Amino acid sequence: MVEWIALDGDDTLWHSQDGFEEVEALFREIVAEYVDPDTARAELYATEAANMSALGYGAKAFTISLVETALRLSRGSIPATELDRLLDAGKGLLTRPTRLLDGAAGAVEELAGRYRLLLVTKGDLVHQERKVAESGLAEHLDRIAIVSEKDHDTYRQLLAEEGAPAQRFLMAGNSLRSDVLPVLEVGAWAAYVPYAWTWVHEQVPDGAPDGVPVLSSLAELPGLVAELAAA
Amino acid sequence: MVEWIALDGDDTLWHSQDGFEEVEALFREIVAEYVDPDTARAELYATEAANMSALGYGAKAFTISLVETALRLSRGSIPATELDRLLDAGKGLLTRPTRLLDGAAGAVEELAGRYRLLLVTKGDLVHQERKVAESGLAEHLDRIAIVSEKDHDTYRQLLAEEGAPAQRFLMAGNSLRSDVLPVLEVGAWAAYVPYAWTWVHEQVPDGAPDGVPVLSSLAELPGLVAELAAA
């Protein structure tokens, strides 16, 4: 019997990765005179990975990595106007309007009040708060947890703070790495709701583990939870 | 009778602004061939202020503003090597070792266990968590609140979550704007512990309001709290 339902934000409740993909496409276009698209993509991700422990996740870290990689790939010859375009595009991610995914609002409304409903999301504090506010979903959420990393320690601590037994806690999200695998590790339930794009860092080679429900939209979540209750 | 004591992090428990001042000095040196130092400083702060609602506070926002301002002040003619120096210096703030202020550790140890002790800090989530971990103070803190803004709403919500009556809550910090004025607004106690530098954004024209205790170091905080108890 699930009593706690936790939801991821980016690419689960609202679109996010599509914006990063657009900016990355601009980046590849801008550095096209120095490197081919595959190299551009790989080098950008190498910079992001190298910056991650200090900069964490989110659009500000991404913006810094864009500029840094463009300077490196161009050996410093990139025109300032192109750097300005990258800065503007990166910063633009932070003020992009929040667009909910199909089925997200309905699922949240249906689950609210019947379960303790949590949002568990990582990234920039200011940016995530803005998206929560713009989403219109805040009134339905019992708790908003903006965290720096979503690993098993994060979920273990969250369960402890909530006084939630693992077998009564379900997390739904689009990232196997952040929303599914560490949740299974602590003995809780997870539902996988794939998004069209997955950031390289969130990709998991083997796909969803056996037995993890894969939903085509959050609209299927209330039904899944009802099934778990009946089982 | 104070039962809750909240402490600011940056420039109250550990040094922070000195690092930003160093990087700003490097910035002024780098743009010196385009503008005079006062203009450099004013333009950097204008960029930071314009970026604040989207980017928030902290070293990542500062790094983006450094690059953006240097491009603008040089009309795009700044060499890439200088942009690299700015990126490195800005990112370096995020991995700079955490150095406690004199008196901070002793005060925290003395207060821990006798009061409910909170850290209330704003900035980058990842960076603040790193500083808390490096500070060695986490074991003495009952709660760590990393927030996007420290205004009266933030303190009101914190008091509500803690179930703390305002008159039993005291906040100590180096910023009149973030640690003192909004705390007084909600009817709680505040102690002002000035730091050597105050970021322009945190400066308040009139100085500390009458009656607000001004401490020369956190070492004086346990004595102040004892006085409040006796009064």
TrEMBL record, chains A, B:
This is HAD family hydrolase. Gene3D superfamilies: HAD superfamily/HAD-like, Putative phosphatase, domain 2. The keyword Hydrolase applies. GO terms for molecular function: hydrolase activity. It holds the Pfam family Hydrolase. InterPro entries: HAD-like_sf, HAD_sf, PGP-like_dom2, S-2-haloacid_dehalogenase. It comes from the Bacteria. Transmembrane segments: none annotated. Keywords: Hydrolase. The keyword Hydrolase applies.
